[in-house]
Amino acid sequence: xxxxGQETELTLLYRKYADFIYGIALSYLKNPADAEDAAADVFMxxxxxxxxxxxxxxxxxxxxxxxxxxxxxxxxxWLLKKRxxxxxxxxxxxxxxxxxxxxxxxxxxxxxxxxxxxxxLFAVQGYSVHETAEILHLNESTVRTRIARARAIIRKxxxxxxx
Length: 163
Prior knowledge:
Elements: H1 3-29, H2 32-49, H3 56-75, H4 85-91, H5 99-110, H6 113-124, H7 129-136, H8 140-158
Helix pairs in contact: 1-2, 1-3, 1-6, 2-3, 3-7, 4-5, 5-8, 6-7, 6-8, 7-8
């Protein structure tokens, strides 16, 4: 593919999935600056690789896997291991949040990764169970179970029944 065609495809992918990639990175790294860097790294990797995708589902799945891998690599660094849910909450604008929603967000950030990611994709990003399963390379029943368990953990920690 000519460079201009690849750049156009990359631009479209960036516009469509930048927030999605940033959201996944933030859920892992718990720091907006680090999440922005990880998202940028993923798009640079895509640009340098010259990859093209036959459809949007494969593009989204590749981007999700790439940002997940990038974040896992970053988390191996000892400074980032010290991030906490409280530090992440300090970076999120909370003026408009009710105290209950603030507590739910803190509890969500403390969830283990295997529960946090499906819940973030489904409840925060708005993907269906099927799409979430495709992105995370899991069975749909596994995604539904993890979302239910994540909600149960949040309800137990916060006492909020709508979690």
